[in-house]
Structures are given as C-alpha cells and as structure tokens.
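Board notes (copied after class):
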Amino acid sequence: MSSSAHDLLPQVDLGNTFGVLFIAVTLSALLFGLTNVQIFIYFQTQRDTGMTPFKLIVIWLWILDAFHLALIVHCIYHYLVTKYANFNALTEIVWSLKLQVILDVFIVPTVHFSYIYRIWIVSKSRSRVLPAVLTCIVVVLTGGISIPVVMAQYHCHVFRDIVAIEWTAYLTLGAVTFSDIIIASSLCYLLATSRTGFSSTDSFITKLVGYIISTGYLTSVCSMIAVITCAVMPKNFVFLSIEFIVIKLYVNSFMALMNARYYLQTNVVSVGSECHVRHEVYHPELHINTSQDDKAQTNVSDDVVLHITRPGCRGFTEDGDHGQASFLVGVTDY
C-alpha cells in the first residue's frame, strides 16, 4: 500500500460514509419494491379507464425511479466492490453519483407539477388563481435553483469539494420542502372548504386530508432532516443517504395519493349501501267487478316495493351539493 493511502486511511470512516450509503441503497430498494406494488394496484383499479395523462406520468416516474435505483446501486458497488481497499479511489466522485442528481431534478418537479395539475382540475368551479400561483412558484424554484445546483455539483471531482458547495444542499432541500408545504396546504384548504354538512361526506374529506398530510409532510420532514444533518455533520454522507431515500419517498407518496380512492373505497361502499331502504306501498282495494286475471294482476301490484333514498344521502344528488361531490371525485379519481 502506498504512503498516500496510509495517510488517507486514518481519515476515512467507512461507517459514517460508505456504510450509511449502503444502508440507504438497501432502504431505497425496499421503497422501490413498495412503489411497484402501489403502481400495480393503481393500474388494476384503473384498467377500464384507458390511457390517461396520469397513467403516462406514473409510467414516466417508474422509469426514472428504476434508473435512479440502478445509478445508486452502481455507485455503492463501485466504492465497496470494484474499488475495494483502494482508499485513493474512495475520495473521487463516480459518474453515477453525479448523474443521479439530474434524475432528482426530473423526479421531484414531475411530482410537484402533477399535484398542481390535480389542483387545477378540481378548481374548475372556483378561482384558478391558486393553481396559477403554485405553478409560478414551482417553476421559479425548479428552474432558478436546479440548474445552478447541477452545474456546481458537476464541477466537483472529489468529496472534499462537496463541503465547499454545501450551500447547494441547503438551497435545494429548502426549496423542495417549501414547495411540499404549500402544495399540501393548498390541497387541504380546497378540501376543508368543500364540506357539505353531511357526516358521510365530511368523514370522507377528513380521511382524504389525512392522506394528503401524511404523504406531503413526510417528504418535507425527511428533507429538513437532511438539511440538519448536512449542517451538523458536513464531512460524512449521512445527509447524502437521506437524499437517496427522499427521492423514493416522493414517488411512494405520490402513488399513495393516487391510490387514495382504492384505500377509501371500502368506506365509500359501506356508506352507499346504507342509503337505500325498502318501503312497501299500500294500495286500497277498489270494489269493482273484475275478471280472475285482473285480480291476479292486482294482487301482484300490491307487492310492489319502492327504493327511496334517505334525506342524508339525497345531498349527493341535490343541486347544492352536486359540485362538492364532483370535487371529491376529481380529487380521488386519477
């Protein structure tokens, strides 16, 4: 072993650097498997709708997510297998680690614009100011931050250079966290202002808000943890490993919201089954002379059963609440 390698050996902590990257790649592979399950559920529940824009988005995200996993697997394989015991090579940034940054720039904005597109659709009976403002914010954050960040990181050739540009991590993670918060808050606001006063509908809205909060703020919390770890421990790869996982969480959270209708359909069916009751209708006898056939028909008519809807369920068909029901279908029907 060369003298330079001996000098570098005491400075390299494999546990806090490539060890945490290995753990992050393992967790990313597990999350990718969960993404495949959610995509399978989505296409099974939407198999009768034909090809829609959201199906194309799901396919696009799956391709990017699979490519991202392949790149980070190559990265950890390069350091721990191909360059095993080569401590000089451990200080250099492999090409796959640089390329996965570009995929991050494609995956996160795709998820954000998909949420905004859904907000635009469900706001068709309202003002379009909110989705327009959200679009401008995401475009500015994506184009104004992603391009210089990618250029700065591509000029890094060794890991020591990353410490000098750690501002890129703060800027990127802060921007995506801000976008997550305003998008999730906007969806929750639209749902909160769409309550009908009927317990079944309001319960459905409450559960849907819970889905949005859990899926939207999960990525925000993980991004903030990555920012904190980057500030506290800038000389290890803990923050970089969290970034690997955050990308997988973006795709998983998006698919969880896409499948919200499937997860909630059991409650919707049970609510719908309670909306029909049977009532027998009394027909008084008419004392007239009729034939035997007419009497038989009269007896059959006495057994007529009508299905009526209770007042609590009629709210979905009245004009005042038709827009609210359409709004809920627009939120969950992807």
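Comment from the instructor: The two ends are 59 Å apart (CA to CA). Confidence is low (pLDDT under 50) at residues 1-10, 268-329.
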